[in-house]
Write a structure and sequence with these properties.
By secondary structure, the chain is mainly alpha-helical. The protein has a single domain, classed as Transmembrane di-heme cytochromes, Chain C (Fumarate Reductase Cytochrome B subunit, Up-down Bundle). The protein is 61% helix and 3% strand. It has 7 helices and 2 strands, in the order E-H-H-H-H-H-H-E-H. Strands 1-2 form a two-stranded antiparallel sheet. The longest helix is centred in the N-terminal third of the chain and has 35 residues, at 55-89. It is elongated and about 60 Å long.
Protein backbone atom coordinates (compact mmCIF):
# COMPACT_ATOMS: atom_id res chain seq x y z
CA UNK A 1 0.00 0.00 0.00
CA UNK A 2 1.35 3.40 -0.99
CA UNK A 3 1.56 6.38 1.34
CA UNK A 4 -0.75 9.35 0.79
CA UNK A 5 0.74 11.77 -1.72
CA UNK A 6 1.70 15.26 -0.68
CA UNK A 7 -1.13 17.60 -1.55
CA UNK A 8 0.81 19.98 -3.72
CA UNK A 9 -1.52 22.24 -5.75
CA UNK A 10 -1.38 21.59 -9.46
CA UNK A 11 -0.81 24.03 -11.14
CA UNK A 12 1.13 25.70 -8.26
CA UNK A 13 -0.68 28.47 -6.46
CA UNK A 14 -4.19 27.42 -7.53
CA UNK A 15 -5.10 25.21 -4.57
CA UNK A 16 -6.27 22.59 -7.08
CA UNK A 17 -5.22 18.94 -6.71
CA UNK A 18 -5.68 16.38 -9.48
CA UNK A 19 -7.70 13.63 -7.80
CA UNK A 20 -9.85 11.85 -10.42
CA UNK A 21 -8.01 10.60 -13.49
CA UNK A 22 -9.73 10.42 -16.88
CA UNK A 23 -10.55 6.65 -16.71
CA UNK A 24 -12.26 7.24 -13.34
CA UNK A 25 -14.33 10.14 -14.64
CA UNK A 26 -15.18 8.46 -17.93
CA UNK A 27 -16.22 5.15 -16.35
CA UNK A 28 -18.24 7.05 -13.73
CA UNK A 29 -20.35 8.90 -16.29
CA UNK A 30 -20.75 5.86 -18.55
CA UNK A 31 -22.04 3.90 -15.55
CA UNK A 32 -24.43 6.76 -14.68
CA UNK A 33 -25.88 6.94 -18.21
CA UNK A 34 -26.04 3.19 -18.68
CA UNK A 35 -27.85 2.68 -15.34
CA UNK A 36 -30.46 5.24 -16.40
CA UNK A 37 -31.01 3.49 -19.73
CA UNK A 38 -31.01 0.04 -18.14
CA UNK A 39 -33.52 1.11 -15.49
CA UNK A 40 -36.00 2.49 -18.05
CA UNK A 41 -35.68 -0.35 -20.57
CA UNK A 42 -35.53 -2.99 -17.84
CA UNK A 43 -38.72 -1.73 -16.24
CA UNK A 44 -40.40 -1.80 -19.65
CA UNK A 45 -39.24 -5.37 -20.29
CA UNK A 46 -40.78 -6.47 -17.00
CA UNK A 47 -43.89 -4.26 -17.31
CA UNK A 48 -44.56 -3.21 -20.91
CA UNK A 49 -46.02 0.32 -20.97
CA UNK A 50 -46.27 0.93 -24.72
CA UNK A 51 -48.84 -0.70 -26.97
CA UNK A 52 -49.12 0.05 -30.66
CA UNK A 53 -52.48 -1.52 -31.36
CA UNK A 54 -51.23 -4.84 -32.68
CA UNK A 55 -49.37 -7.88 -31.35
CA UNK A 56 -46.79 -7.78 -34.15
CA UNK A 57 -45.90 -4.15 -33.52
CA UNK A 58 -45.87 -4.73 -29.77
CA UNK A 59 -43.30 -7.49 -30.29
CA UNK A 60 -41.17 -5.12 -32.36
CA UNK A 61 -41.24 -2.50 -29.59
CA UNK A 62 -40.39 -5.14 -26.98
CA UNK A 63 -37.52 -6.45 -29.10
CA UNK A 64 -36.20 -2.91 -29.56
CA UNK A 65 -36.27 -2.33 -25.81
CA UNK A 66 -34.39 -5.58 -25.22
CA UNK A 67 -31.77 -4.59 -27.80
CA UNK A 68 -31.25 -1.17 -26.21
CA UNK A 69 -31.05 -2.87 -22.81
CA UNK A 70 -28.40 -5.27 -24.11
CA UNK A 71 -26.25 -2.50 -25.65
CA UNK A 72 -26.48 -0.44 -22.46
CA UNK A 73 -25.57 -3.54 -20.46
CA UNK A 74 -22.39 -3.96 -22.50
CA UNK A 75 -21.46 -0.33 -21.86
CA UNK A 76 -22.19 -0.82 -18.17
CA UNK A 77 -20.23 -4.07 -17.90
CA UNK A 78 -17.16 -2.75 -19.73
CA UNK A 79 -17.20 0.46 -17.64
CA UNK A 80 -17.35 -1.51 -14.39
CA UNK A 81 -14.46 -3.76 -15.49
CA UNK A 82 -12.38 -0.71 -16.49
CA UNK A 83 -13.04 0.94 -13.13
CA UNK A 84 -12.07 -2.22 -11.24
CA UNK A 85 -8.90 -2.51 -13.35
CA UNK A 86 -8.09 1.11 -12.50
CA UNK A 87 -8.24 0.20 -8.82
CA UNK A 88 -4.92 -1.59 -9.44
CA UNK A 89 -3.44 0.61 -12.21
CA UNK A 90 -4.61 4.08 -11.23
CA UNK A 91 -3.40 6.81 -8.92
CA UNK A 92 -3.50 6.74 -5.13
CA UNK A 93 -7.10 7.97 -4.82
CA UNK A 94 -8.43 5.40 -7.30
CA UNK A 95 -6.80 2.31 -5.82
CA UNK A 96 -8.44 -0.66 -4.12
CA UNK A 97 -7.03 0.12 -0.65
CA UNK A 98 -9.05 3.35 -0.71
CA UNK A 99 -12.23 1.26 -0.94
CA UNK A 100 -11.38 -1.54 1.48
CA UNK A 101 -10.21 -0.02 4.78
CA UNK A 102 -7.17 -2.17 5.50
CA UNK A 103 -4.99 0.62 6.86
CA UNK A 104 -5.24 2.52 10.12
CA UNK A 105 -5.83 5.82 8.27
CA UNK A 106 -8.74 4.41 6.26
CA UNK A 107 -10.32 2.82 9.33
CA UNK A 108 -10.05 6.18 11.05
CA UNK A 109 -11.69 7.80 8.03
CA UNK A 110 -14.65 5.42 8.37
CA UNK A 111 -14.97 6.37 12.03
CA UNK A 112 -14.74 10.11 11.38
CA UNK A 113 -17.41 9.91 8.66
CA UNK A 114 -19.71 8.00 11.04
CA UNK A 115 -19.16 10.71 13.66
CA UNK A 116 -20.11 13.39 11.12
CA UNK A 117 -23.29 11.62 10.02
CA UNK A 118 -24.30 11.00 13.66
CA UNK A 119 -23.77 14.71 14.52
CA UNK A 120 -20.77 13.94 16.75
CA UNK A 121 -18.46 15.96 14.52
CA UNK A 122 -19.12 19.49 13.27
CA UNK A 123 -17.79 19.05 9.72
CA UNK A 124 -16.68 16.18 7.48
CA UNK A 125 -13.11 14.97 7.51
CA UNK A 126 -11.19 17.01 4.95
CA UNK A 127 -9.80 14.53 2.45
CA UNK A 128 -9.31 14.85 -1.33
CA UNK A 129 -10.67 11.40 -2.24
CA UNK A 130 -13.56 9.38 -0.90
CA UNK A 131 -14.07 9.19 2.83
CA UNK A 132 -13.55 5.72 4.28
CA UNK A 133 -17.28 5.24 4.84
CA UNK A 134 -18.22 6.38 1.33
CA UNK A 135 -15.57 4.14 -0.21
CA UNK A 136 -16.81 1.19 1.84
CA UNK A 137 -20.33 1.85 0.57
CA UNK A 138 -19.01 1.93 -3.01
CA UNK A 139 -17.44 -1.47 -2.42
CA UNK A 140 -20.91 -2.81 -1.69
CA UNK A 141 -22.26 -1.06 -4.78
CA UNK A 142 -19.61 -2.71 -6.94
CA UNK A 143 -20.77 -6.06 -5.58
CA UNK A 144 -24.30 -5.14 -6.69
CA UNK A 145 -22.87 -4.18 -10.10
CA UNK A 146 -21.39 -7.65 -10.56
CA UNK A 147 -24.58 -9.31 -9.34
CA UNK A 148 -26.51 -7.33 -11.98
CA UNK A 149 -24.06 -8.37 -14.69
CA UNK A 150 -24.20 -12.07 -13.77
CA UNK A 151 -27.97 -12.23 -13.37
CA UNK A 152 -28.43 -10.18 -16.55
CA UNK A 153 -26.37 -12.70 -18.50
CA UNK A 154 -28.47 -15.49 -17.01
CA UNK A 155 -31.72 -13.81 -18.05
CA UNK A 156 -30.64 -12.93 -21.56
CA UNK A 157 -30.30 -16.58 -22.56
CA UNK A 158 -34.13 -16.68 -22.72
CA UNK A 159 -34.05 -14.43 -25.78
CA UNK A 160 -30.71 -15.52 -27.23
CA UNK A 161 -30.57 -17.79 -30.31
CA UNK A 162 -29.89 -21.48 -29.72
CA UNK A 163 -26.29 -21.15 -30.92
CA UNK A 164 -25.62 -17.94 -28.98
CA UNK A 165 -22.81 -17.71 -26.45
CA UNK A 166 -25.41 -16.45 -23.95
CA UNK A 167 -26.86 -19.96 -23.77
CA UNK A 168 -23.80 -20.80 -21.69
CA UNK A 169 -25.27 -18.82 -18.81
CA UNK A 170 -28.39 -21.01 -18.57
CA UNK A 171 -27.03 -22.69 -15.43
CA UNK A 172 -27.33 -19.40 -13.52
CA UNK A 173 -31.10 -19.20 -13.82
CA UNK A 174 -31.84 -21.35 -10.73
CA UNK A 175 -30.24 -18.69 -8.49
CA UNK A 176 -33.43 -16.60 -8.73
CA UNK A 177 -31.82 -14.38 -11.35
CA UNK A 178 -34.92 -12.36 -12.17
CA UNK A 179 -35.67 -11.56 -8.54
CA UNK A 180 -32.06 -10.62 -7.76
CA UNK A 181 -31.78 -8.57 -10.94
CA UNK A 182 -34.85 -6.52 -10.04
CA UNK A 183 -33.84 -6.08 -6.40
CA UNK A 184 -30.35 -5.03 -7.46
CA UNK A 185 -31.70 -2.34 -9.76
CA UNK A 186 -33.94 -0.87 -7.06
CA UNK A 187 -30.98 -0.81 -4.66
CA UNK A 188 -28.93 1.05 -7.28
CA UNK A 189 -31.71 3.58 -7.86
CA UNK A 190 -31.97 4.23 -4.12
CA UNK A 191 -28.20 4.59 -3.98
CA UNK A 192 -28.34 7.17 -6.79
CA UNK A 193 -30.72 9.30 -4.69
CA UNK A 194 -28.44 9.06 -1.67
CA UNK A 195 -25.36 9.68 -3.80
CA UNK A 196 -26.76 12.88 -5.28
CA UNK A 197 -27.78 14.09 -1.81
CA UNK A 198 -24.37 13.35 -0.31
CA UNK A 199 -22.57 14.99 -3.22
CA UNK A 200 -24.55 18.20 -2.75
CA UNK A 201 -24.08 18.03 1.04
CA UNK A 202 -20.31 17.64 0.84
CA UNK A 203 -20.09 20.23 -1.92
CA UNK A 204 -21.61 22.73 0.51
CA UNK A 205 -19.71 21.54 3.60
CA UNK A 206 -16.27 21.11 2.05
CA UNK A 207 -16.47 23.77 -0.67
CA UNK A 208 -13.91 21.77 -2.60
CA UNK A 209 -15.61 21.66 -6.00
CA UNK A 210 -16.61 18.03 -5.61
CA UNK A 211 -19.19 18.23 -8.41
CA UNK A 212 -16.82 20.02 -10.77
CA UNK A 213 -14.14 17.44 -10.00
CA UNK A 214 -16.08 14.70 -11.79
CA UNK A 215 -15.74 16.75 -14.97
CA UNK A 216 -12.27 18.24 -14.55
CA UNK A 217 -10.56 15.81 -12.17
CA UNK A 218 -9.47 18.65 -9.88
CA UNK A 219 -10.60 19.39 -6.34
CA UNK A 220 -9.86 22.53 -4.37
CA UNK A 221 -7.82 21.72 -1.28
CA UNK A 222 -7.37 24.04 1.69
CA UNK A 223 -4.26 24.02 3.92
CA UNK A 224 -6.45 22.48 6.65
CA UNK A 225 -7.29 19.59 4.35
CA UNK A 226 -3.63 18.82 3.75
CA UNK A 227 -2.94 18.83 7.47
CA UNK A 228 -5.89 16.59 8.30
CA UNK A 229 -5.22 14.20 5.43
CA UNK A 230 -1.84 13.35 6.97
CA UNK A 231 -2.81 13.41 10.64
CA UNK A 232 -4.03 10.55 12.78
CA UNK A 233 -7.13 11.06 14.88
Amino acid sequence: MSAPPRLVPEPPGTGLVYVWQLPVRLSHWLIVVSIAVLAVTGYFIGNPLITTGGPARDRIVAATMRSIHLYAAWVFGVSVVVRVYWMFAGSYYARWDQFIPVSRDRLNSVWQAMRFYSFQRRGPQLYPGHSGLAALAYTGIFMIYFMEIITGLALYFIYAPANSVFQGFRFLVPIYSRFLHHIGMWILLMFVIQHVYSTILFSVEERSGIIDSMFTGYKRISPEAEEEAHRDA
